Each structure stands twice: as C-alpha cells, then as structure tokens.
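User: Hey, quick favor. My workstation is busy. Could you predict this chain's structure for me?
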Amino acid sequence: MASALFFGIFMTSCAARITSGPGTAVPVPPAVSPDSQRASAPPVEVCATFLPSGSCSPYVSVSGTAQGMNLPWVASGGVTVQLTAVDGSLQLAVKTPCNPAGGPASISGHTLHVGNIAVGAMGCSGEAAAQEKWVLQFLKRPIEMTSVGGLLRWNSGPDTLTLKAN
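Assistant: No problem, here it is.
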C-alpha cells in the first residue's frame, strides 16, 4: 500500500508540470548570447626556429654533459625537442626517456626561457626517472643557444646538450 501511495504522489508531482499541450516543446532561452556561439578558428601551430640560422624541425640529442661528465643516454637520442608557434606564442615540446614535457617558451637574443613546464603522467623509475629529472632541471634554467656546423648547442648552468636537426 505504501509503495502504491508513493508511486501515486510521484506520478502526480511529475504530471504537475504545465506545458502547452501534448508533444509541444516549450522554448528555452539560450544560455549564451548568439555572438558567443560563433565558431572560433582552431589554434594555428607552425614550426619555429630556435635561432635564425637554425632548422625549423625537431631536434634529437647527440651529446650532453652534467657538470662536465658525459651522458651516454643523451648521445643515443635520449632527448628530442621542437619549437612551435601557436597563434604567435612559442611552445617548446620535449620528449625525455620517460615522459613528454613542454611549456611556453620565449627567446631573448640567444637565450631560451621555458615557462611552466607540464609533464606527462607516466610513472617512471630507475634510470628513466633520473634522466627525466635531469632534463627538467636543465629546462628550468636559462638556456644559452649557439649553432655550429648544423648542430644546436644548449648550455644551462654547468650542463650542456647538443642536438641535431632530425
């Protein structure tokens, strides 16, 4: 009996909605103005160069040092980087042995600055985690860039990274 009473009240409350008649839709005012409903163009991403004399392409690491010590994992292409311009703002994309990373970038003369770096969420351990940590620390400091013989050389504090166009 209680369930029949509950069902009857439930159905009555649902039926209490006023409409213009059976099957008639009630107009709902738009939640946003018609001007804001216009489709905006997707962001345009174009390749950008690190230096005027450099190549507009991804770069892969060919050598690197940490406080003067050679990093063999860097020599085997352990780091790739690419600079793009998205609607006029520079963006750096980096691939480490563990995760991709990237962030907004700016270049002043021959110095690259990377802003808030976002990192992929894959968990890494051991060597891959240590290598990713090194790359992220490298990117947090101002990076002095030079181009010699088709190679792009980065100096960040006591560390270096040499890259070639891929």
